[in-house]
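DUF4442 domain-containing protein structure dump, as promised
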Amino acid sequence: MVSNCMNLRQKFRFYFLNFYPPYFAAGIRYKKIGKDFTHFRLTMKLHWWNRNLVGTHFGGSLYSMCDPFYMLILMENLGEEYIVWDKAATIRFITPGLGQVVADFEIPKEEIERIQKEADEKRKLDVFFQTKIYDSKTGKVVAELDKVVYVRRKERIKKEKNIINS
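structure tokens r here:
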């Protein structure tokens, strides 16, 4: 079942992600977290400490801004009975990032329910997502990110181990 409310523990945990050292050091900030954890919006301003050699956003900071969010959305919505892992990622740099950049990560509830159903029916599942990082003033796309997230129901693993051990 897809969860639909944010409790105090979850609010506290996600608030402190702003202070997670890789995000804090890069200047990455949460601007919006959907109540049902289906949407995250992050921003990153250009500072002297997150610039590359040519004065634009460092690619590693742009990638780290995007790293865990599809996985987090699925973990929060599918619950503890599912294993969710980031499996692969590709980032393409489109245009230099010169100001504040923004990235949105969203999985609609209907898509989460489809993923849950498919994971229940299959042994394992790879889910593909794409997002864009864009300049907050011009709207120009700075980078595109493709992610592959692995999903598997935990009880299937227990059943398979029992069959092997029998």
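The domain at 8-165 is CATH 3.10.129.10 (Thiol Ester Dehydrase; Chain A).
lmk if u need the other ones
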